[in-house]
Amino acid sequence: MVQPGQIAPSTEGTAGDDSLVFRAGALLCALRLGEVIETMRPLATHPLAGTPAFVTGICIMRGAPTLVIDVARLLGGAEARVTRFVAVRTDRGPVALATGEIQGVRAIGTGAAGHHEALLGEAPARLVAGVGTIDAAPVLVLRSMRLVPDEVWAAAAATAVPA
């Protein structure tokens, strides 16, 4: 059962095209729906020492400590206004992405990220699966499974308090 704010996983075999589109500063970004757990208002976040600037800290999401990553900073941009959290699946558990306004769910056709290096600017290609367009504006389709470097997970584990 999908609760308010949650995104139902796509039931189609080609779940790759439907994406949650959101702002990250001046950038328009998207995540494949299969990687999105839910969207929510920003939660109270506690700083985490020893992490890169794009790691805002840790929040308690549905009773569990969860890393918070600022997508605008991650992609090389300046600090941007955060209006939503997008919870995503990773191999090591959920991560909350701090984003701007949610634009909705759209089908986005993409080209390989490597073919669009000029559009990516400072955004590392390892973070971007492809580049699509909405109304002639570029949309960076992110690879959520690869957003969190190992050293960030290690810093988070070092601060975890056993229950």
Structural write-up:
- InterPro entries: CheW, CheW-like_dom_sf, CheW-lke_dom.
- The chain has 163 residues and is mainly beta.
- Helices cover 11% and strands 40% of the residues.
- The strands form two sheets. Strands 9-1-2-12-11-10 form a six-stranded mixed beta sheet. A six-stranded mixed beta sheet has the order 3-7-8-6-5-4.
- A hairpin with a 2-residue loop joins β5 (55-61) and β6 (64-70).
- The longest helix has 10 residues, at 150-159.
- It is globular.
Question: Which terms summarize this structure?
Answer:
163 residues; OB fold (Dihydrolipoamide Acetyltransferase, E2P); 6-stranded mixed beta sheet; 3 helices
Spatial strand arrangement across the major sheet = 9-1-2-12-11-10
According to CATH, the homologous superfamily is CheA-289, Domain 4
Determine the number of helices (DSSP H or I, runs of at least 4 residues): 3
Q: Could you say how many structural domains there are in total?
A: 1
Element-level helix/strand string: EEEEEEHEEEEHEEH
- In terms of structural class, how would the helical and strand content be classed? mainly beta
Indicate the proportion of strand residues: 35-45%
Tell me, what's the shape?
globular
| N→C terminal distance | 29 Å
Q: Which consecutive residue ranges, at least 5 long each, have pLDDT under 50?
A: 6-16
Q: Look at the structure and give the CATH class.
A: Mainly Beta
What is the level-2 CATH architecture name?
Beta Barrel
User: Which bin fits the share of residues in helices?
Assistant: 10-25%
Q: Might you state the CATH topology name? A: OB fold (Dihydrolipoamide Acetyltransferase, E2P)
Average residue-wise pLDDT: 79
Query: Rounded to an integer, what's the Rg over CA atoms?
Result: 15 Å
Sheet having the most strands: 6 strands, mixed
Q: Total strand count, please? A: 12
